[in-house]
From TrEMBL:
SUPFAM superfamilies assigned to the protein according to its UniProt record, in alphabetical order: GAF domain-like
Organism listed in the record: Geodermatophilus obscurus
InterPro entries xrefs: GAF-like_dom_sf, WH-like_DNA-bd_sf
Protein name: ANTAR domain-containing protein
Keywords recorded for this protein, A-Z: Transcription, Transcription regulation
Superkingdom of source: Bacteria
Length: 244
């Protein structure tokens, strides 16, 4: 049985555990981690360079890795998207190329290797599949051809589902994924800072990232606290004034 055939069989079986079109990306991520020699997987979309939208992860650790990358504003998936090519990174590469992301990754997760694959076809330029390894697994053990075959299958399934199932905003129903809903809080927080501090969205995002880094929080959780008014804007304004 080929890896694609294994993928299709495992995906069909997963429908019994995770029902509902909004959970399709999570199902896909779990199946990727099951049929490939990796320990975790995540699927994300990019609507702009600073608008990364996670839609599914295979497990909690993979979700943390995605949030750490988004909080740091650097990492293999962001670079793979910017460069438009797959990136395979062991721990030494992660430490050298993305040191802020590396610090959080080794502190909060057992992940030490990543494979980041831009999705092709209908999701070219906006979709990405992240694969994660934990020792003793190693990124060099993963055949890139198998990973690319699986990523092609992921794109095919998302595209097909998007044609038949529409979500609350008229897009594919899988865009209503719980992870995407959580990330939308960041865009709300940016609006708060736009209006309250008179800063641009880019500056607001940089301010939130700086505050998240110094406080040891991830950006999604910090954004929720801002939207819930647990963190006064004048407190964030002090950070803005001190960095000006």
């Amino acid at each position: 049985m080929t890896v694609v055939e294994e993928f299709r069989v495992a995906l069909a079986a997963s429908a019994l555990d995770l029902t509902g079109p909004e959970l399709l990306p999570e199902r896909l991520a779990r199946v990727c981690a099951r049929v490939l020699p990796v320990d975790g997987a995540g699927i994300a979309l990019f609507f702009a360079d600073d608008r990364r939208l996670p839609v599914g992860a295979s497990d909690a650790t993979s979700s943390i890795a995605e949030r750490l990358q988004f909080t740091a504003g650097e990492g293999p998936c962001l670079s793979a998207h910017a460069e438009g090519r797959p990136l395979v990174a062991d721990e030494a590469t992660i430490r050298t190329r993305w040191p802020v992301f590396h610090d959080g990754l080794v502190t909060r997760t057992p992940i030490r290797g990543t494979i980041s694959l831009p999705l092709e076809d209908a999701l070219r330029g906006i979709g990405a599949l992240d694969l994660y390894t934990v020792p003793p697994n190693d990124v060099t053990r993963l055949g890139l051809a198998d990973a690319l075959a699986v990523s092609t299958e992921v794109t095919s399934v998302l595209r097909a589902e998007g044609r038949t199932s529409r979500g609350t905003d008229g897009g594919p129903a899988w865009l209503d994924a719980p992870a995407a809903e959580r990330r939308s809080t960041v865009w709300q927080a940016l609006g708060f800072l736009n209006a309250g501090l008179g800063v641009s969205s880019a500056d607001a995002l940089a301010l939130l990232r700086a505050h998240a880094y110094t406080s040891g929080e991830d950006l999604d959780r910090l954004a929720r606290r801002v939207v819930d008014r647990e963190i006064p804007l004048d407190h964030l304004a002090l950070d803005h004034d001190s960095s000006a």
